[in-house]
Amino acid sequence: MFRKFNSAIQKKIADTNLVANEITGLSVNCLKKYKHHYQYHNAEHALNVAMDSLKLTSCLEEKISSKKYLRLIISSLYHDIGNGKYPKAGIDEYESVNSFLKDTIKVPLLKKLLKSDILQISSSILSTVFHDRYCDAALLKNQKYILKTLKLLKKYNIKTDQQKIISLMCNTESWIIKNADIFGSLKKDSILKNNFTNYWENLLSGKFPRFCSAKLHRELFVKFIVGKIHKKSYQKDTKFSLKANEKYILITPNNSDKFPSKLEKYGKYILLKSEKEFHKIITIHHDILNYIHYLMYTSIKKNRKTNKYIIKENILRLPISNIIKKIRKNQKNIKIASNKINLRKINSQNYPQLFNKKNAHKSIVDLTGKEISILFAPNKKVR
């Protein structure tokens, strides 16, 4: 993946190799700060967002300068660096900005940034707060994480105001980061793995304090890609419709009446393709999703004193052989919880790849998205 990243940099950044080498050095420094590799928002995700943000610029009709490319890369690498063990929207993004600002004092490449660059990067990071990502600019006013960031920026002698930050959070540069952040969830080979790691994060953050069946997950995904969400409550018109997806396409609010044709077509293509692919993959893996989700749901417990969730056992890090044993032990309970009596039995006949001995010691986090899709597919022949 790092080779792909470096290759993407060389193609997009028109400056000398020295600049590309500095970006690679910055990347290594950033990726070390992502501590929870078993969660969705990890170092691999940060690299994917960086590459996708560069890719998405090809849809823009305006010419992108090397400085903007550099800002997109930095925003991507830092955007989830503040995510902790228990994710908290707004707080995590604030911590990501905090980490970035600290590095502007000591990292050579970041020392070269102008104050205007630092302000844009900080705003782009803030724009990825999930429940505010696609809301109107007016709804962002007086959000705690924005006000808190304002105070933080002042400590670094960057004078600005709330209106300016919100404006930068809604410009084309930030929209590229927002959409690149989502594209990672839509890639065919990664959908199943992302589903597991995302659900685990959601459980720990308290977003899904209950068992989430594959059917419910499908419905939530449709609402997710339509982007009609603000402050954890879905707005009206969440039914999947291409007409409702203007916000998803890389259009700035100030420019929403004039759709660049190339951008519009690409956005609609991605949406339609992603919805179909997600539905297909979730349908194929429906049974195993119910099994794994149930195991994750029952492997955490809420501490009433601290109001945090205690991890009794991290299912994502267990060997596949142990996961199989747990599924068999809890098969009856899982069927009842998912309201699905006819779930496939977990055996070598239905899941030949899953019972292949060479995979027994591996865990979900050790496998690539493509490997997981094959491993957990019913009736997939062993080669």
Structural write-up:
The chain has helices at 2-12, 17-31, 43-56, 66-78, 91-106, 108-111, 115-126, 144-155, 162-169, 172-186, 191-205, 214-226, 261-284, 286-298, 320-329, 331-337, 369-375; strands spanning 229-230, 233-234, 300-302, 309-311. By secondary structure, the chain is mainly alpha-helical. The chain has two domains: 2-179, no CATH class; 285-383, no CATH class. Strands 1-2 form a two-stranded antiparallel ribbon. It has a two-stranded antiparallel sheet with strand order 3-4. Mean pLDDT is 78; it is low at 227-260.
In the sheet with the most strands, the strands line up as: 1-2
The percentage helix is 40-55%
Count of domains = 2
- Taken as a percent bin, the fraction of beta residues is under 5%
Q: Taking all residues together, what is the mean pLDDT? A: 78
What's the gyration radius in Å?
21 Å
Task: Give the CA-based shape.
Answer: globular
Tell me how many strands there are. Answer: 4
Main pleated sheet: 2 strands, antiparallel
Sheet/helix structural class: mainly alpha
Order of helices and strands: HHHHHHHHHHHHEEHHEEHHH
User: Which stretches of 5+ consecutive residues score pLDDT under 50?
Assistant: 227-260
- Beginning-to-end CA distance, first to last residue: 26 Å
- Tally the helices: what do you get? 17
